[in-house]
Design a protein that fits this description.
By secondary structure, this protein is an alpha+beta fold. It has helices at residues 17-30, 45-59, 63-67, 122-146, 242-247, 300-304, 315-318, 324-336, 338-343; strands spanning 2-3, 9-11, 33-36, 77-79, 98-102, 105-106, 109-110, 167-173, 188-191, 197-202, 209-212, 218-220, 236-240, 257-259, 279-286. The protein has a nine-stranded mixed sheet with strand order 1-2-3-13-10-15-8-5-4. A four-stranded antiparallel sheet has the order 9-14-11-12, with no helix packed on it. The chain has a two-stranded antiparallel ribbon with strand order 6-7. The structure holds 2-oxoglutaric acid and fe (ii) ion. It comes from Pochonia chlamydosporia 170.
């Protein structure tokens, strides 16, 4: 195991499973972000390349086609520029990005309207989602083993093809030269993810992602950290979401991250990465079944863990048992504002 400049561990899942499980748990507790070395065993390089090609086709569809698939309260569909604000307290305008969210596929069919431009590609999108599901299950199984709770996490996921908040999301950040932004603006506001784990795919050479370190400073997260330059595909970035953090009483950290413009002062750059072009990324947000109860994980390490800053109002202090579905709805209402008001 090696580390990157943001100090995120790089883990090879093909190592001895007991050791890998321990490495994953330690990385989840210490950093909340983990690079999974991608040698093509779980998600072949060609599948990642194909997914990015599909993303360009999908987000390149005529705007009327995308508008007809606008995001709904089930979190599926298209969000236009500025429609989502990930950090409402600090952002004047919304995020500088557009995105298309797919919910779960059943028999290779999306359970939502899709742009006619990609009508013939549904099975290819579904195949990529299946690869992501399988990798998530593998990681959740290993995290359970590392905490000595066996299939506690994995068995709460993917029990049936639908019935969870799982989302495959394709993102496009337009070239900075094409938008009128100020030095205060940000491509994606500071946030932590809502689900159990997120898989993030990025393109070589495209800068922008930063994580908030424990000391309160931001560190860039290179797409290709040292030691992975010759791998067939950049490592897959795993990120612990709020729900897994809640479930483990804060032992697993759901780390705050954001995507910045090149002009945004305080960040340092990564050699070989630029932000001048349109930036594409793909996120797979994995969620347990909606009815999964977020009861404390029955692990010795979780029981012995004392969360920092236990004060009144802190959700960890109250330990109210929510379902995964309730937890997701709570978080979505915060970042989409009016979308949820109108519908209720
Ligand atoms: O585009 C990226 O690199 C990150 C996107 C992200 O953090 C998100 O959609 O939750
Ligand atoms: Fe995120």
């Amino acid at each position: 195991m090696t580390t990157s400049s943001a100090n995120i561990p790089i883990i090879d899942l093909s190592g001895p499973q007991k050791e890998v499980a321990k490495q994953l748990v330690d990385a989840a507790a210490e950093h909340g972000f983990i690079y999974i070395k991608n040698l093509g065993d779980d998600i072949p390089a060609a599948s990642v390349d194909e997914a990015f090609a599909l993303s360009k086709k999908l987000l390149g569809a005529p705007v009327e086609e995308k508008q007809a698939c606008s995001i709904q309260t089930n979190n599926r569909g298209w969000t236009s520029m500025h429609a989502e604000t990930l950090d409402p307290q600090n952002q004047k305008v919304g995020d500088f990005k557009e995105a298309f969210n797919f919910g779960e596929f059943i028999d290779n069919k999306a359970q939502q309207p899709i742009p006619p431009t990609i009508a013939d590609d549904e099975a290819r999108f579904s195949a990529f989602a299946n690869l992501c599901r399988a990798l998530c299950l593998k990681i959740l199984t290993l995290l359970g083993q590392g905490l000595e709770v066996n299939d506690f996490f994995s068995s709460a996921h993917f029990k049936s093809p639908s019935g969870s908040g799982t989302i495959l999301r394709f993102l496009r950040y337009p070239p900075p030269s094409s938008t009128s932004h100020t030095a205060d603006d940000i491509r994606a506001g500071a946030h932590s993810d809502y689900g159990s784990i997120t898989l993030l795919f990025r393109l070589k050479g495209q800068a922008g992602l930063e994580i908030l370190k424990k000391d309160g400073t931001w560190a860039p997260v290179p797409v290709v950290p040292p030691g992975t330059e010759n791998d067939p595909s950049p490592p897959i970035l795993i990120n612990i979401g709020d729900l897994l953090s809640y479930w483990t009483n804060g032992l697993f950290r759901s780390t705050v991250h954001r995507v910045v413009f090149p002009t945004n002062g305080e960040h340092t750059s990564v050699e070989g990465e630029t932000s001048s072009e349109a930036r594409y990324s793909i996120a797979f947000f994995c969620h347990p079944m909606d009815d999964a109860l977020l009861e404390l994980v029955p692990s010795e390490r979780v029981r012995n863990f004392v969360p920092e800053g236990v004060v009144a109002g802190n959700p960890f202090a109250e330990r109210k048992v929510l379902t995964a579905g309730e937890h997701l709805l709570m978080r979505l209402k915060e970042s989409y504002g009016t979308l949820y008001d109108e519908k209720e």
